[in-house]
Amino acid sequence: MPADRSESQPTGRLRPPSLGLLLAEARGIFELNASLILSPLLMRAPRGDGHPVLLLPGFLASDLSMAPMRRYLRELGYDAQAWRMGRNLGGVSRMRTALRSRLAEIHAATGRKVSIVGWSLGGVYARDLALQVPDMVRSVVTLGSPFANDVTATNATRLYEALSGEGVEDDPELRAAISGDLPVPATSIYSRTDGIVNWRTCLLRPSDIAENIEVHFASHIGLGVNPAALWAVADRLAQAEGEFKQFDRSGPFAIAYAAPENAQS
User: Fold this and answer.
1) Relative to the CA of 56, which of 74, 86, 229, 251 has its CA 20 to 30 Å away?
2) So which domain of life are we looking at (predicted)?
3) SS3 219
4) pLDDT of 96-130, one tens digit each?
């Protein structure tokens, strides 16, 4: 997929988001406040069926970052579960065994397939889990997760590699698998105004069970608390097991979503 000139380097590789977008990430607090103010509207989202949902935090974040979403999903009727692994210091390969064990624990305790919602790096983990144990995974929703195209195009790449001890391009086969089609329904929620990851790294290949949802003007650190993103997550999780319909961009936050035909332009 060709990149805009402003988003690519002379080498043809994607650029990380600009310094202006990075500095604008501070608006995430306003997205949280908007969700608090609009909570009566958010509670009109489709109700859950009680199935378990595992929420995976982003790089350098902990379960605390996912607390607002866990509370929201529990109020809608889901069995929202924390990852319980402390701060996410990265390592897709290093974390695989622990993540698989946590997923298996929830699956065994509930006797049901688990939906996985991953924010940023957490979404990369979620896609990898769906590939490893699809029989335990009901669906995957990612939020600003850099799993596709040039995954080096983030403002966190060097720090990730320093703290995790893994290079983002160390395992090209694993990277290719995570960026490819999943055997379960998958939704990627992203924003072109993301200040941490280039939005093109968040695009999956649309299919009968896979879709991209662009949220206008959302920040990277605010995606997990952005009201339009929360509504989309709830709507996607409410689908019956084994069924998938493309996201209906109507409802109280319709103005916040890009039209599907523009998602990859």
Assistant:
1) 251
2) Bacteria
3) coil
4) 999 999 999 999 999 999 999 999 999 999 999 99
Query: Taking the mean position of all CA atoms in its chain, how far away is CA 175?
Result: 16
Residue 157 is assigned to a structural domain of this protein: yes
Range of the domain at 39: 13-262
Tell me the C-alpha distance between 32 and 27, whole Å: 9
255: amino acid identity, one letter = I
**Are the beta carbons of 1 and 203 closer than 8 angstroms?**
yes
Alpha-helical regions (H) of 133-244 = 157-164, 172-179, 227-237
Contact (Cβ atoms closer than 8 angstroms) between residue 125 and residue 117? no
Q: Which residue has the tokens 């996201």?
A: 247
Under DSSP, is residue 137 helix (H, G, I), strand (E, B) or coil?
A: strand
Q: What are the Cα distances from residue 230, in Å, to 10, 36, 111, 161, 249?
A: 37, 12, 26, 30, 13
Count the domains in the chain.
Answer: 1
| Dihedrals phi, psi of 197, to nearest 5 degrees | -120, 145
Q: Which of 228, 233, 218, 226 is nearest to 251 (CA)?
A: 228
CATH value at residue 192: 3.40.50.1820
Question: Looking at the domain assignment, is residue 1 inside a domain?
Answer: no
Whether this prediction's pTM lies above 0.90 is answered by yes
Give the pair of three-digit tokens for residue 112: 């049901």
